[in-house]
Non-heme iron oxygenase ferredoxin subunit
Amino acid sequence: MTDQGTWHEAAALSALSEGEPHGIEIGRHHIALYRVGNEFYATSNICTHAEALLSDGMLDGCEIECPLHMGRFDIRTGEALTSPVEIDIQTYPVRVTGDRLEVCLPA
Ligand code: FES
């Protein structure tokens, strides 16, 4: 437990490829994991516009493009960047432990 939530094992680092979003579910949370160089990020996997899976979208640098209507979010901050998305997505803290990525989720 932390003030922010609870750490959960999310994926093996070897399963996370540069430029290929990776969708997982932990309990009720639908999470998209991203690798950009040696940095890792986690966001909600559900687009705030019409609930498409962002893990089916295209990662361009630190921007994920939704596969349904091409709205874009910044995966570092969750900020909604381009129409038609207007509502930011949730982001989650991540950490590397050994060869695994962990994500911190609210309880
Ligand atoms: Fe993602 Fe419409 S569902 S932009």
